[in-house]
Amino acid sequence: MTSEHEEHAPHGRLWMADLLWRLGSVQFGEFSLGRTVRNSPVYINPKLVISRPEELARVVQVMDEELRLAMALRNPHVRRFDLIAGVPIGGLHIATALSLQMRVPLVYVRPSPPFDEPEGASRVQIEGAYRPGQTALIVDDLAAGGGSLVDTATRLRSAGLLVRDAMVLVDRQQGAASRLERLGVRLHASLTLEVLLNHLQGEGRISHEDYRSAIEYLHREGDLRSEFDG
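Above: the chain sequence. Below: its structure as tokens.
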């Protein structure tokens, strides 16, 4: 059954799939990244979009439309937010562009302890102006196992901010959604790896062998395995 959100969803996500393909952000081979992505037959690098200002502007426009729509539904899928919190480093560029698009203040969690604070100053973890009790939307370019997203949510909350939602360009569907859900954070993605692969296969952009190996990997290693087994 199609959800209320899916019935009203804009069609920008398939344009984004084509964009990522044109930019070379989708590669096939054998890739291992971090602790979650091991021996994957597909590699996704959404960061390449930051070098294309016009396309980046359109990407964040699509994200803006999706977020506003999700907040306006009878049963909102995204809670209202006061701040956009970028995940360094790749997600921070996307978050900055989205902040400018939506006119929503930007903050970010420092990726490492600061070295430039004056002696005796309190250790600052969050850059940007905020007040405890405000709600922050986390923004990143890619979700895999969710480690960076979970760390960001935890540190934002430790600073007194509320975190209920996270938004990414691409969700690899490898555990991030379930990890965030356990924290009470809902993950939203403009594209999932499954949608991207299905579209590229349908358009004849990728071979059947690459498509099959990537989908089998996703079912075996990712969030889709429970649906596949069921």
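Strands lie at 26-33, 37-44, 83-86, 106-109, 126-127, 135-143, 162-171, 186-192.
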